[in-house]
Amino acid sequence: MAVIDWPLAVRVIRISFVLVALGLQLVAAAPAHAGQALAPGQRQGQYSRWFYPSQMPYGALETGNANLHEPASSGAFLTLPFMGAHYITSLFDHCYPDYQANGRLCRWDGRVVSKTVGGPDPGFDWGYAQTPGQHDYLYYDGHDGYDFGLYYESVAAAAPGRVKLAGWAVPSCHSCLSGLTVEIVHGNGLLTYYGHLSRIDVAVGQSVQRGQVIGLSGMTGTATGPHLHFGVYYENGRGPVDPFGWAGGGPDPWSTDLGDLWLGGSPRFANVPLPQVGVAVGRDPLDPTVISVSWHSPGAGNVYEVQFVTQDGGVGELLRSNIAGTARFAGEPGKTYWFWVTVRTNLGWSDANSSPSITLPGFEPKQAQ
Ligand SMILES: [Zn+2]
């Protein structure tokens, strides 16, 4: 099935005249800090769901490990807008990213596909399939960004910046264009664009950090399956750029590109601590009617919620805490309990885990004298 979205059209609607001067050149205002991106081979492991029910998983897998063998441009400032490996299900079309189908698509590395090479899928004129079964739309004629196979997963800011848009691309039409959308401006004449979200966690004017959760992916707007549309655009409405730049043999057909914009020269995950909850339970050595429950997680600015669950399914809150620790829980003799701990970091990443179950001893029968 096709995933269709129209961010360029939205950009055209949202031209900002005030910032024209800023956008004439990519200002080197954002220095490249390679330490803000994880080194090749490192993964942000637990965010690695690859579900993509609406599309076949035939696209390139973005693992954060590849080397493009391209130098980063002096203005490189981006990390991937998600954590963990995910499929790329649609690429940026250098010929041309204008949502017009011209029968020809050009990838950042110079590879060209057309209706007669590799496709097309007869059911979808704008997608030129490259795989057996012709079911993926890795090449989507006129696409002006990258689609990633995120299935209702946290979306991360690709660079520090300020939120310019946090809401419906078309307020009166929730099935139009890119639906729930976030735009972040980065002070270098460019903005990053996150479309088809199911939830937005930031507000207009808010500053965000690299790797901060800005919302949850989804399929709002015009999309037939959940995915993230990620794009990089001139703030002044001059159009999209490909964050991969151009490494083809000839000149870049899309002449307003700005080179390889990934920190370190290849797409990497933001180097921010992610949570991973551990929970342990045990008997209190001083009181057999008390359970000792302990919780911890890596992360920064962690806020924990510890709940107890009874054997009949009841749930109650034991405590909230901003530190890892241990608490005492007094249950009923002979009853079984387990504990559920959630954590949220100061950048919005969350995790949860359960303890093993534990049964308190029953009443001891009275000994006959
Ligand atoms: Zn898209």
Describe the protein's topology.
Elements lengths: L6 H7 L6 H4 L36 E3 L23 E5 L13 E3 L5 E3 L31 E3 L5 E3 L4 E8 L11 E6 L4 E8 L1 E2 L6 E2 L4 E4 L11 E7 L5 E2 L36 E7 L2 E10 L6 E8 L4 E7 L3 E6 L5 E9 L5 E5 L3 E2 L10
Antiparallel strand pairs: 1-2, 2-5, 3-4, 5-13, 6-12, 7-8, 7-11, 8-9, 9-13, 10-12, 13-14, 15-16, 16-19, 17-18, 17-20, 20-21, 20-22
Bound molecules: zinc ion.
The site of zinc ion has 6 residues, from loops.
Q: What is the total number of structural domains?
A: 2
Number of DSSP E strands: 22
Strand content of the residues, in percent? 25-35%
Approximate shape: elongated
Approximate helicity band: under 10%
- Top CATH class of the largest domain: Mainly Beta
In N-to-C order, the SSE pattern is: HHEEEEEEEEEEEEEEEEEEEEEE
Q: Which blocks of ≥5 consecutive residues have pLDDT under 50?
A: 1-32, 46-57
CATH architecture of the largest domain: Distorted Sandwich
The CATH superfamily of the largest domain is known as: Glucose Permease (Domain IIA)
**Rg from C-alpha positions?**
25 Å
In the CATH hierarchy, the third-tier topology of the largest domain is known as Glucose Permease (Domain IIA)
Q: How many helix segments?
A: 2
Give the overall pLDDT as a whole number: 82
Please describe the biggest sheet, giving its number of strands, its sense, and whether it closes into a barrel. 9 strands, antiparallel
Could you tell me how far the N terminus lies from the C terminus, measured between alpha carbons in angstroms?
Answer: 79 Å
Which molecules other than protein and nucleic acid are bound?
zinc ion
Structural class: mainly beta
